[in-house]
Amino acid sequence: MFRRVYLDNSATTPIDREVIDAMLPFLTEKFGNASSIHFFGQEARGAVDKARHQVAEIINARPNEIVFTSGGTEANNLAIRGLVEANEKYGKHIITSQIEHSAVKEVCQDMEKRGLEVTYLPVYEDGIVKTEDVKAAIREDTILISVMTANNEIGTIQPVEEIGKFVRRLREQGKKIWFHTDAVQALGKIPVDVEEIGCDLLSISGHKLYAPKGIGALYVRRGVRLHAQNIGGHQERERRGGTESVPHIVAFGKACELAKINLAETASNLKNLRDKFENNVAERISDIEPNGNRENRLPNISNISFRSVEGEGLLINLDLQGVAVSTGSACSSGSLEPSPVIRALGRNDELARGAIRFSFGKDNTEDDVEYVLEVLPKAVENLRRLSPNFQAAKK
Predict the structure, then answer these.
(1) Which of 48, 112, 124, 168 is most enclosed, with most CB atoms within 10 A?
(2) Are residues 334 and 241 in the same domain?
């Protein structure tokens, strides 16, 4: 009998029991529409307002700067499309990085089809954008910079505070330019403070934070103009039309409240588990390459390339042993192409195809790590035994 070990928390997290308890009443007796003016509606409105405060508090924002969305993807779409469409007279150039989530990268690619120009900055071997490259890419017609807070595959933390300070200085000099950051993976693992970052727009999502799928939010700094993408209602201060999903919003608020309270303890526990795992993998398995900066990264993500091993094969082998991991972003699952993030580090196809992401969550234990350390070396050995290239290299 094998056990089940879930090490794919960067794809999604299980819903916290306290979060479930908070949202359940709004799935049953507290069913009102938050836009209605009678008792049932105002009860729902009060719950939404409370959640808006809870979400604002974890990122040090004002409640009226929070726009609830269906998730991180919609938040990124609203940020990029909404900002550009509302301010297009100021420029038609966007700066982003080569390792952004597809919810940013593909929006930028779509904007290129509409006549905008996009600069995709490199990240080099450590997986971190250089602030100097951002500065060098600025043009007269640059309107938006979008660089993620932390990468979803390798966990590297980007210099968003430095970028934010630079953008603020440019605006003080009269330039019309804004800064967006995708903080979906960072929230709940490291401090995320919109004032420290100095961003104008920031995207977050519930299901990476022990809340349900289908809920997220966009922080919009006071005074920033956006063109709504969901038309047909006056909700969210006319920035996102559509009836609010009260149960999901309540759940997200509760998850943010818990994450803020437990941030330091959670981050410490995750780092300890990750470091124990990585140290033992390095001792027990040869021919591996860790991906990304080893220090400046999220505490819960470990991304490792195994030479002469196909990542998909290793993922399936581990799944048969009860261990859930990932070969990259869940949103690109099923793609046969090597991870663009790993390739952006300068890795060849072999290492890119052999990359596995192990992402730890607050419910993981040392026993989980021990079990993975027991089955992982055997899985790698079995796959390498079938690899002609690996066998030839040993001779």
Answers:
(1) 48
(2) no
pTM for this structure?
A: 0.95
Structure tokens at 112: 């290129």
Say how many C-beta atoms besides its own lie within 10 A of residue 173's C-beta: 7
- Determine the Cα–Cα distance for residues 304 and 367; give it in Å rounded to an integer: 21
Q: Give CA–CA dist 67/359, Å, rounded.
A: 28
Domain encompassing residue 351 = 5-13+263-394
Is 256 annotated as catalytic?
Answer: no
Instruction: Tally the C-alpha atoms within 13 A of residue 336's C-alpha that lie toward its C-beta.
Output: 0
Same domain, 249 and 313: no
What average pLDDT values come out for the chain (395 residues) when binned by 10 residues? 91 98 98 97 98 98 98 98 97 98 97 97 96 98 98 98 98 97 98 98 98 98 96 93 97 98 98 98 97 97 96 96 86 67 95 96 98 97 82 59
Task: Compute the distance between CA of residue 231 and CA of residue 241 in angstroms, rounded to an integer.
Answer: 5
Q: Is 84 exposed, middle or buried (0-12, 13-18, 19+ CB in 10 A)?
A: buried
* 3-state SS, residue 150: strand
Query: Are residue 243 and residue 293 in the same domain, yes or no?
Result: no
Catalytic residue among 108, 199, 256, 331: 331
Boundary of a domain, candidates 258, 281, 300: 258
201-205 and 216-220 as β-strands: parallel, antiparallel, unpaired? antiparallel
CATH of the domain at 98: 3.40.640.10
